[in-house]
Design a protein that fits this description.
alpha+beta, globular
Length: about 160
């Protein structure tokens, strides 16, 4: 399933494995939750989230991935965007992430629940996240989230 909005360039002669995904934007004190993935000099920032496993829904995958990567328990909110991202994983495997971007509310925090040792929870200003996130799809989703949030805030005043 190719989404309407696609990021990344396919490299010729590579077959990209399609991977259903869900990523989230959780805000606290004007900052959003991101993960810094430790790859030494090639470290990067991502939004929390990842692959939808088996029969999981996107929302179920989002909840699981947040705990595994950050230790945060979240409540999924609105699926506000969808996009695809072509890229190569750290091991060089070509992947096509396809899925939704969700708002998320933090309901609990337990750092001992985090299982991915190379992932570190960091709270970034949204503008910095847009500049620093590894994937263009993630940066676009944060920018879209900001626009929706700001419009709603303006309409509620």
């Amino acid at each position: 399933m190719t989404p309407r909005l696609q990021f990344g360039q396919a490299e010729p002669d590579l077959e990209y494995r399609e991977r259903p995904t869900a990523f989230g934007v959780a805000e606290r004190d004007g900052r959003i939750a991101c993960v810094r993935v430790d790859r030494g000099a090639a470290s990067y920032f991502d939004l929390p989230g990842g692959a939808v496993d088996g029969e999981e829904t996107e929302a179920e995958a989002l909840v699981r991935e947040f705990v595994e990567e950050t230790g945060l328990t979240i409540e999924p909110g609105e699926r506000f965007a969808a996009a695809g991202q072509l890229f190569r994983k750290s091991d060089g495997a070509p992947v096509h992430n396809v899925g939704g971007f969700w708002t998320a509310s933090v309901v609990a925090e337990d750092p001992s629940a985090k299982v991915e040792a190379d992932h570190e929870l960091v709270w970034l200003e949204p503008a910095r996240a847009v500049a620093e996130l590894r994937h263009d799809a993630h940066a676009w989703a944060v920018a879209k989230w900001l626009r929706v949030r700001d419009k709603r805030g303006h309409m509620e005043r």
